[in-house]
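Exercise 3.2. Students should predict the tertiary structure of the chain below and write it as structure tokens, then compare their answer with the key that follows.

Predict this chain's 3D structure.
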Amino acid sequence: MKYLLLIVVLGLLWLMFVKRKGAPESRDPDPRPPESMVVCAYCGVHTPRSEAQVVDGQAYCSPAHAEAACRR
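Answer key:
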């Protein structure tokens, strides 16, 4: 019985080793560089500059906040 248990444990360890070795690492081939953040003038949330809505020199996190600020 103990030999059967030993064979099962060794078999599981071998399968784990083969599975880890055979699977290629999935890395992003071209990681994006860090981006500067801006603060929403309406709610104060930090948003990447590329995703911010800029109206009259003020940055907003979404079009809804830009529109709400214009209505003020």
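Discussion points: The first helix runs from residue 2 to 22. The chain is about 40% helix and 15% strand.
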